[in-house]
Amino acid sequence: MSTYGTINIKADVKNALNDLGSFKNELNQKQIMRATSRAINDCLRDGKTDAKRAIKKVYTIAERGMDRALYIDRSTTYPHKGKVVGNTFLTGAILASAKPVPADLFKLSFSYKSGSTSTISKKGVQKTKLNTRGKSGGGVTFEAIKGQVEVYSHAFLLPTMSGRVFARGAYKTGGNYGFVQRMGKGSRLPFEGTGNDSVKGLIGPSVYLEAINPNTQKIIMNHIEPKYAERMWAHLGLIISGIRS
Predict the structure, then answer these.
(1) Residue 92 and which of 76, 86, 204, 231 are 20 to 30 A apart at CA?
(2) β-pairing, 150-152 with 156-157?
(3) pTM for this structure?
(4) Torsion, CA 103, CA 130, CA 168, CA 99, rounded to 10
(5) Mean pLDDT in runs of 10 for the chain (245 residues)?
(6) CA 51-55-57 angle, 5° bins
(7) pLDDT value of position 46
(8) What is the pLDDT of residue 16?
(9) What is the pLDDT of residue 132?
(10) Can you say whether the dihedral through the CA atoms of 82, 85, 86, 90 is positive or negative?
């Protein structure tokens, strides 16, 4: 089963080709296919940008996290199997991953008993500073969905490990987001977790649902539908002028 879902967008390639008129006499079939494919890929890149904006309205995810969440199966001028699309011949797709995103790709801060606080920048750089207001109890303050802040008092940071943020506990059955922390030695979890309550890397939610919801798809369509013909004509012009083959 694929871990990607497709953001459904369409451009009217057939009508754009019918509008070529006399230009058809100046172009061969391969040149028309190249212009078509390039226009599709231009629109896919613009659509991915629109999807990112929609996701960032809801989540605090860093730009580098978007590369894990969104992927483009590029259009080609020859039969080729895409990552999800069966054949990318004059067809492309924006794909949204259903996998949960590691916690350190969202907004969070680490508070240590020594009084220092660490944050991770959008570029993934860890920064630590001394808390002049006094020592805190330690732990992680985590905000994946804007306005919804969670505190894991016993979570910790391992800068050299993938995912970076860890805690002892378990995720609720049937979900990736909803971590319940074991608060101390001998304590019990209030539910039957998926596996034991060993140390686990903290993860945030998947951004899949926000990427594929009808409102996001409508925003993308309203942007790229009128742009496809424009981009195709631009690429045809470059080919006719000899700037591109």
Answers:
(1) 204
(2) unpaired
(3) 0.76
(4) 0
(5) 61 63 74 89 92 91 87 85 71 85 85 61 59 56 88 75 73 58 56 59 83 86 85 88 82
(6) 120
(7) 92
(8) 62
(9) 46
(10) negative
Q: How far is CA 179 from CA 107, 132, 204, in A?
A: 16, 31, 9
What is the three-class DSSP state of 167? strand
With residue 39 as reference, give the H or E element that holds it. Answer: helix 29-58
CA–centroid distance for 235 within its chain: 28
**8 A C-beta contact, residue 55 and residue 208:** no
* 107 touches 119 (CB < 8 A): no
- Check residue 187 and give its pLDDT: 54
In b/e form, how buried is each residue of 90-107, taking b as 16+ CB within 10 angstroms?
ebbbbbbbbebbbbbbbb
What is the token pair recorded at 155? 């979570």
5-19 burial, b at 16+ Cβ within 10 Å, e below that, comes to: bebebebebeebeee
DSSP string for residues in 125-150: -EEEEE-TT-----EEEEESBTT--E
End-to-end Cα spacing for the chain: 39
Sign of the dihedral defined by the CA atoms of residues 82, 86, 89, 94, in that order: negative
- Measure the CA–CA gap between 24 and 27, rounded to whole angstroms: 5
**pLDDT for res 135:** 45
Give the integer Cα–Cα distance in Å for 175 and 191: 13
